[in-house]
Amino acid sequence: MAKTDQGNGLELNVNTEKLTDSNGKGSSNGLDPEVNGSIPEETQVDKYGFTGGAQQSAGELAEEVPIEVLRQREAKWLEMLNSWDKWMSKKHNKVKERCQKGIPPSLRGRAWLYLTGAKVKREQNKGRFKELDIQPGDPKWVDIIERDLHRQFPFHEMFAARGGHGQQDLFRVLKAYTLHRPEEGYCQAQAPVAAVLLMHMPAEDAFWVLVQICEKYLPGYYSTGLEAIQLDGEILYALLRRVSPVAHRHLKKHKLEPILYMTEWFMCAFSRTLPWSSVLRVWDMFLCEGVKILFRVGLILLKCMLGTQEKVKSCQGLYETMELLKKIHPQYVREGFLVQEIIDLAVSEKNIEKEHQAQLRLWKENHGDLNCKSPPRMHGAKAIIAAEPPSRQELRQSPTIIVESPLASKMDVMPEGEAKGSKKATKENGHTTALSTGGAFNPSGPSPALKHMTIQGSKESLSSAEQDTYL
Questions:
Q1: How far is the first Cα of the chain from the last one, in angstroms, to the nearest whole number?
Q2: In this model, does residue 37 exceed pLDDT 90?
Q3: Which candidate in 135, 168, 174, 393 could, as Cys together with 26 as Cys, close a disulfide (CB 3.0–4.6 Å)?
Q4: Residues 306-336: pLDDT tens digits?
């Protein structure tokens, strides 16, 4: 199977409109409302940014966290991110537990950056994304990427506008990856993964998290031939024998190959399969604990849909079974139910690695050696940080929210010249905040520094140094 033919379940309406100029950079079309289009004012946008489609939030499928609990969790995550290496080495189970509870939305992007090791990767390769971003890219991959852009979450406000900022940033990230790994190029299943990341972080950070997912979490998934995903399909099928013998026998009876139903699940990390609240919870756990989370989700869905004799009676053949697995019942993908099932299912890294070795031997007997030599898979954040221990400098959080405060009481006792140029730093909620000592302070109104700020359109996404403005 050629990787450029790997679909994602949506019809492709070819459009020749280009997002790039002759230099391969994003065009300025995203700034033109006539080109961009807009979401009508009467359209309802859910809290995740969806205006419609299957993944628009349905209240009963998502869990609401009380605001007091959310603030407590934010404080805990800020504390962890400020001493990430210590928490990962000494209190990893607590990090895992907090990921299972759900990362606070305001910190999810930064947490994913740290969990994947992408923060360290970015610091070790400063300027690399910018170098890739200004290169034109291979015309073969550029053309395929451009034709795929409008298919990624078209009902999300970030990607709804053809040629808008979301699509431009998605193009930049995917094009940069083809230049970073020219031997792999581009696979269509990478696009929804990159799009999910862009919903939570700037383009440069999304690029490095994508690199870590492709190289550490799912190595070989997006390479020519899709050998790695086929192997994992056989692992999933073998594990199903223990988790749900009824479902296993049914799939075996109808000769339903795993590659037919689990490819999109795993390659897109369920981003096209689950309600959005469930997608985010699965990703929180996946980026912390590794690919075993994807296996658990796949096993749970198969067990829930095909796990009893009554359920398989309605599936008399391969076609009926495939149709059933394309339309998972809502009660099985509801956030609260699914997350608890994932936590409770006893499928470990050891189970997966043991089965991986068994399936690798069978593969060699039937097909010979693998054509794609992928690096070993890393089972989550702990394995990644253990394999490449970062320095404290690489983990240091930059002060990205600058708030000017006059500290009027101190100005009264300071010489005029000293007060004018003096700046002090304070720590608040784990952030270092620069405090200027000029101007007058009005506790009931906005800071003078913020009062005159205006939001202006820009071709460029926010830089990595500005990531905290997503809070």
A1: 42
A2: no
A3: 168
A4: 888 888 888 888 888 888 888 888 899 999 9
- Here the tokens at position 228 are 């790695």
SS3 (DSSP) at 41: coil
- pLDDT of the residue at 244: 92
- Grouping H, G, I as helix, E, B as strand and the rest as coil, residue 424 is strand
The set of residues, in sequence order, having a beta carbon less than 8 Å from that of 155 and lying 6+ positions away, is: 50, 51, 52, 53, 55, 56
Buried b (16+ CB within 10 A) or exposed e, 274-311: bbbbbbbbbbbbbbbbbbbbbbbbbbbbbbbbbbeeeb
237 closest CA partner among 220, 212, 216, 261: 261
Helix (H, G, I), strand (E, B) or coil at 349: helix
Contacts of 3 (CB under 8 A, 6+ apart): 185, 186, 187, 188, 222, 223, 224, 225, 226
Structure tokens at 276: 């959005």
54-58, 137-141, 333-337, 425-429: least confident range: 425-429
pTM of the model: 0.77
